[in-house]
Amino acid sequence: MLPRFVGRLGIADAVTITNAALGFVAVVVAFVDIHLAARLILLAAIADGLDGLLARHYGGTEAGPYLDSLADVASFAIAPAVLAFVVISDGLGIGLETVTVELGLVTAVCGLFVAMAVTRLGLYTAYDTADHYTEGIQTTLAATIMGAAILAGHPVDDPWLILAITGAFCYLMVSRIRYPDLLARDALIMGVIHGLAILVPNAAGRTFPFALLTLGIAYMTLSPWFYWGTDPAPVDEEPIASAE
C-alpha cells in the first residue's frame, strides 16, 4: 500500500520537505560544528526559495503553503535559535550542567525567537501571500543573516552582541515594517552569492559570507524605505514571492 502523499504532493513539496530535514540536521550538527550548521541553514534557505519557483513552474498543491510554514519552523525558527544558543553559551562559557542567570537569559531569548518566528510564519501564511510585500522581517532573512554572520566570523566573537541581535529579531519578525518582495534580478544576485557562501565560505578571506551578510543587512535596514520608492510593484518587472 502506497503512502497517502503519493499523487497528492508535487516536486515543490518534496523540496519543501527537504528544507525541513535540513533544519533538523542543522540543529544536531550545531553542537559539533557550528560552521557546518550555518551552511546547512543557508542551504535550507535556498531550498525555501527553490520550492516557490518550482510551484510557479509546475503548479503547487493545496498542502504546499502548510508544508512551507511547517518546514520553516524547523529551518528558520528552531535551527537558528539553536545556533544562537550554542554560539552565545560557548562564548560566555556557560555549561548546561548548572542553572545560572546567564543560562536562563540566553534560553529565554532564544525561546522567544522561536515563538515570534512561529507567530510570524502563521501571520504570513494567513495574510501576506497575495501582496507584493510582507510585514516584519522574513524568518528566512533573519536565519540567513545569523548564518552568514557565523560563517563570516563576526560578530560571533561577541556573544552579548549575538544575544542582542537575536532579541532584536524577536521584535522585527512581528513588527509592522513592510518589506518588499525581491525583484527577480536582485533575487538572482542574492542567490549566487548565497550559493558561493555555502560552497566556498573561506575563499578570499570569507568574501562571500561577508557579502551575503552585507546584502542581508542592507535589505533589512534600507528596503522598507528605498527599495521601490513609492511603487511597490513596478509594471516592467515581476516581483518574486517573499521567501518564508
Question: In brief, what are we looking at here?
Answer:
By secondary structure, this protein is mainly α.
Please supply descriptive tags for the structure shown above:
8 helices; 244 residues; Four Helix Bundle (Hemerythrin (Met), subunit A); mainly alpha; two-stranded antiparallel sheet
Write the layout of secondary structure elements.
Layout lengths: L10 H20 L3 H25 L5 H29 L8 H28 L4 E3 L3 H14 L6 H14 L5 E3 L3 H16 L7 H20 L18
Antiparallel strand pairs: 1-2
Could you characterize the architecture of this molecule?
The chain is mostly helical and 244 residues long. It has one domain (11-226): Four Helix Bundle (Hemerythrin (Met), subunit A) (Up-down Bundle), CATH 1.20.120. It has 8 helices and 2 strands, in the order ααααβααβαα. Strands 1-2 form a two-stranded antiparallel sheet. Helix 1 (11-30) packs parallel to helix 3 (64-92), helix 5 runs antiparallel to helix 8 and helix 7 (184-199) packs antiparallel against helix 8 (207-226). The longest helix has 29 residues, at 64-92. The chain is globular and about 50 Å long.
Helix fraction, binned, reads 55-70%
Along the chain, the helix and strand elements come as HHHHEHHEHH
CATH architecture: Up-down Bundle
Structural class: mainly alpha
Average residue pLDDT: 87
**In this structure, how is the largest beta sheet organized?**
2 strands, antiparallel
The total strand number stands at: 2
